[in-house]
UniProtKB/TrEMBL annotation:
It comes from the Eukaryota. The keyword Transferase applies. It comes from Microbotryum intermedium. GO terms for biological process: L-leucine biosynthetic process; L-valine biosynthetic process. It catalyses: L-leucine + 2-oxoglutarate = 4-methyl-2-oxopentanoate + L-glutamate; L-isoleucine + 2-oxoglutarate = (S)-3-methyl-2-oxopentanoate + L-glutamate; L-valine + 2-oxoglutarate = 3-methyl-2-oxobutanoate + L-glutamate. Its cofactor is pyridoxal 5'-phosphate. This is Branched-chain-amino-acid aminotransferase.
Amino acid sequence: MTRLTPYLTRVLKANSARSTSLLNARPTALPLVASLKSSSSSSVSSSFSTSALAREKHAQTTSPPIVGSPVTGQDLMTGEVLAGADIDPSALEIELTSSPKTIPPSNELQFGQTFTDHMLTIPWNVQTGWGTPKISPYAPLQLDPSATVLHYAPTLFEGMKAYKDGKGLVRLFRPDKNMERMTRSAARLAFPDFTGDHLTTLIKKLVDVDSKWVPSEPGTSLYIRPTMIGTQAGLGVGASTDVLLFVIACPVGPYYSTGFKPVKLLATAKDVRAWPGGTGGYKLGSNYAAGVVPQQAAAALGYQQILWLYGPEHQLTEVGTMNLFVVLSHPDGTTELVTPPLEDMILPGVTRDSVLALARAHEKGEAVLQGLPPKFKVSERNLTMPQLREASKDGTLKEVFGSGTAAIVSPVSGIGYESELIDVPHGEDGLGDVARVMLREIVGRQTGKIESEWSVVV
């Protein structure tokens, strides 16, 4: 008998209305900023109108509305809520390591190579629901060789960071957005649903237990990797009856340790990252493995990243594993910030959402971001490579950058396309004007220099 997972239940109910639901997605209310903490950052800060302080609103489109039921562990016939229906933070068990590791100096940190002393694990079973959350010493997982994750790739992950502010407090940046995206991805894989705030509470506890691992130098952070995998033993494609949710963390240094270095992109339509109706809008492990060979091919030609194109018109989608932004100028003096619409091919990045929120606040006059022009427009629309090439030729292309958790912003200096290298303007510091402002504003909120509800103290 087919198990009615949250995703399948929703698809059966809403399949006929899918196209209209994408057009009518409810905007998500996201907090902006309030004020500055210190005068030292005021010279580079944003100033906000009274209305922005009162309302703390912005217009932002949402991800495609594929969402699971509020909780799992509910009998679909009787409606009875079963034990283990949701993650229970109050049941947390903690086992501290007896052999703490030596923390390397911040200037020796390599991304994803050194992990903290502890990890969080929460098992799930289709009959018993969510099990006991445990923080225990970091250790290898035990998997049956026939585990579903090893054969059919039911796995998802998130990427988020913790920062240490000037007072020594540890802060998470917009964890609610990571949880929102994680539960969407879980529904897409027929994984169990859970309350995002419950997992955030447990992540906070893990970070608190390993707080000495959070570096304090500028540009450093603790990278946090929540992950879910199907662990059911046995071959056969289907919804996994056993799932493991685990969280690991590693201290990381600055993405650009010696200053920003603009990258060159290879625009390709030969290899396709995502397509309508696919899983490109979800943070699934399977979306990343297939990009390795195209990335190697680009590197062999002297390019640092892939610019993924789609369709006969060569629409811009994403850059490497980041969201894409293009800055254009118009004859009336307006500067336009363009990014491809989410639909179901673009990953709803947390940094992407933050850039759009800040830019739209400036566009609407709810905030004044120093460094952005007064005539400023934000667009989520499709842009093609022929259009980008033409903008480069007529001088209206002003900037291209990627956005993501690792680098925040990644400036672009050139794009290889059809045997031609398209030059992209950037400043002497490697950044364009818009990327520079967004980096300043987002880092300010991540580190607590700018007061914002986006920054959550652990």
